Amino acid sequence: LALVGIGAQASDFPAKDKPITIVVPFAAGGPTDRVARDLAEAMRKPLGGVSILVDNAAGAGGSIGANKVAKAAPDGYTLLVHHIGMATMPTLVRNIPFKVETDFEYLGGINDVPMTIIAKPTLPANNMKELVAWVAANKGKINLGNAGVGSASHLCGLLFQEALKTDMTPVPYKGTAPAMTDLIGGQIDLMCDQTTNTTSQIEAKKVKAFAVTSPKRLSTAALKDIPTMQESGFKDFQVSIWHGLYAPKGTPADVAKKLNDALKVALKDPDFIKKQEGLGAVVVTDKRMDSADHKKFVAAEIAKWSPIIKAAGVYAD
Ligand code: MLT
């Protein structure tokens, strides 16, 4: 009877009347939140019309939200949408209360999002050459917004400071949505943020855009005239922020499979794909949608970023 009970439980997933919660480890309105809400909408139908809520559990560069899911019941009803921070946290944040490699079921990859170097609208530079000169002339007085140590904007900001051989004052927020408000208002000077968050502000000329961090220029209308970092003289500067979907370790295999199946249907949804492309993002290949592949992919990313971060000598306790 017990065995049938357990079997029946997994095959009932998801129960009609029990919402699934996707935890977003950053503030509402930011790039991670954007991906999660669009994904939630596209996953509802393949999960039988179940309601999918988004819970913004922000703070500590994304590790608070990740920890909330690591400690959640492994029943498939609490998921995490996170990004490259899953690969940088193990190096950047020395005492996170969970293990990225062992405390999650890796359900699959979602998308790749390029970043943009943007500035407050009043910053007196109109191209990367002038920006580099302005940074050099204002050493020690520049505020660089990010979403906390371990965030994508923090990582890109680190690489940008290294490329310009300068130090800026990091101003951490609970996400790049609140950071963007201050950038538009001129309270902070610069930020490196994902196109899912910056495209609309660049289009509305609320911020100045100096470069994209993709290997080639982007085709999105509002972004196509922005030079790459490569064109701007920083040949090795490429940052792409991938996102993935995770559940707590111990989630039953059939539940994880149902979630991965629904993820794959969502990532093939023409509406979802169109939304991603309109924001400069690209849905991952079929291979990277696979759970086992995503786990291997993140392990390789941890190995890739660890020496880069150590070389930058930045840690957060
Ligand atoms: C990040 O910079 O890590 C995220 O994009 C922040 C956010 O989603 O608000």
Automatic annotation (TrEMBL):
SUPFAM superfamilies from the UniProt entry: Periplasmic binding protein-like II (SSF53850)
Keywords: Signal
Signal keyword on record: yes
Keyword NAD annotated: no
Family: Belongs to the UPF0065 (bug) family.
Protein name: Tripartite tricarboxylate transporter substrate binding protein BugD
Native source species: Caenimonas koreensis DSM 17982
Classification lineage: Bacteria, Pseudomonadati, Pseudomonadota, Betaproteobacteria, Burkholderiales
